[in-house]
Structures are given as structure tokens and as C-alpha cells.
Amino acid sequence: xxxxxxxxxxxxxxxxxxxxxxxxxxxxxxxxxxxxxxxxxxxxxxxxxxxxxxxxxxxxxxxxxxxxxxxxxxxxxxxxxxxxxxxxxxxxxxxxxxxxxxxxxxxxxxxxxxxxxxxxxxxxxxxxxxxxxxxxxxxxxxxxxxxxxxxxxxxxxxxxxxxxxxxxxxxxxxxxxxxxxxxxxxxxxxxxxxxxxxxxxxxxxxxxxxxxxxxxxxxxxxxxxxxxxxxxxxxxxxxxxxxxxxxxxxxxxxxxxxxxxxxxxxxxxxxxxxxxxxxxxxxxxxxxxxxxxxxxxxxxxxxxxxxxxxxxxxxxxxxxxxxxxxxxx
Length: 329
Known about the structure:
Elements: H1 2-27, H2 31-42, H3 46-71, H4 80-96, H5 101-113, H6 117-145, H7 147-158, H8 163-187, H9 192-213, H10 217-241, H11 250-266, H12 273-284, H13 289-328
Helix pairs in contact: 2-13, 3-4, 3-10, 3-13, 4-5, 4-13, 5-6, 6-9, 6-10, 6-11, 11-12, 12-13
């Protein structure tokens, strides 16, 4: 009963937040602004959007190859088509069932390659750590490129004359708390709830170190960087599709990419919320609200169509090859 309620809430809460975000944003717009928004979305250059989708598929192929590297030390050598189908179907399911993709991913790979779900789930930890590292690199680039603008924004929001100093002190406090937390976890790691947290911490650490222990470590790292470069390029190509935003510099592009990415991590699918996050970020950099909001929808729609098309293809491919495998047995 409790599990059923929890699963229902996992779907209902993101959906409710998305609908609320859409309604809230539209209420702020006049009829003329709504028409501008719709026209801006309709007039987006399809060439750049198609290119963005193609780059997206390339990134997913690279992700499929990268996944094979973590499975090989466990004694499994899945075919590329099966790892690709598993990943695309996981993204497809995530559109409709938040966080349901990971279960789908493992189930599809088990059906086609007989990789136990417990084994494939473990490789996902390593994958998430690599992705977090790549996202952190992009955040660092944004801070280097747009440090002055972000500093002035912080000054305005915090009412501080030296926001950079406050940010530095905040980071130092965060590091100090991290070291203190790690010390306390190691000291009381066998006590109740802390035992579970300690196990999670050890799992993350093991996942991070396992990258450097695998046979194709550098290839794994190269694919990770390539995947995120593709993601950023997908994002930028959508900027080029909107004339008012085509001249945006790398700073606003990457800043909106990071904020949008974090939104998708927190709320799987990002319906309604993702376009708002893109708009708010770009408005901060001085861009007009309507084109910025339109861009958010253009990116979200392009990525959703790409995932649906990929999911349909992978679903058909999975069913076809699964039936062939069953016939052999």
C-alpha cells in the first residue's frame, strides 16, 4: 500500500509542479505576449533543431559504448545495439514514469544479455559520478567566464558589497562541514541511520575509484567528456534556432545549460519547469523574456521528440531481437 502511494506521488508531484509552472508563467503574459511566444516557437529554425537531435543520438551511442566498459570487468560483453536499446528505452520510460527508467534499463539488458539487474544497477553509480564530474567542469567554466556578472547578481540579491568573498566563505564552510561529516560518519558508522549513509558514501567512493581501475579507463573518461560536449552542443544549436538568441555568448549558453540540467535531475522530465528555468537564467543575463521562454520550450520539445523517436525505434528493435533470441532457445 505504502509503496503504491509512493509510486503514485513520484508521478503526480512532478506532473503537478509542471502544470503549475505552465499556468503561472502563462498568467504573467498578455494575449499579445502569448501570441509572440507561440510565433517564436513556431518560427524556430528546424535545421538547427534536427542537427541538435542528431547530436543527441550520437551522444546516446557514446553513452552506450561507455556503459559496456563498466560491464566488461564483471564478465559481460553486451552488444552495442542492446546497450543502446536499454538506454533509449530508459529515457522513454522516464518521460511517463519519473525514475522508472533505471529499472527498465536493467530489465531490458537482462532480457537481451542476461546481465543480472544487481550488476547493471551497480555500474550506474559509476556513471552518475562521471556525469557529475563533467557537470562540475562546466560549472567551473561558467564561473570563470561569467564571474563578474554572477558577482553583481549576488550583490543585488544579497545586498552585499563583496559577494565573491561571501561565496568563498560559504564554500570554505561547506568543505569544513563535509570533512566534519565524514569524520562523524567514520566514527559512528555502525549506529542506526548513519550506517546507511556510510554505506552510500562508501558506494559512491568505490564507484569513483573503479573508473581508474577498469581496463578502458581513459576511453571511459574520453567518452564521458564527449557525451557532455554533445549535450552542450545540442543546447547551443537550439539557441541558433531563435534569431533573438543566436548571438548569445558561451557564458549564458552554458549557464542556462547547467541550470536546465540541474532542473532535469531534480524533476525527471522537466515538464513546465525546464522552460521556466531556461527563461529565468537568460533574463538574468539581460535577454528578453519571451524569446528566452520560447527557447526553453524549443529545447524541451526537441529533446522529448528525440527521446520518443529513439524509444519507439529501440522498443521495436528490442521486441524483434528478443523474439529471435527466444526462437533460438
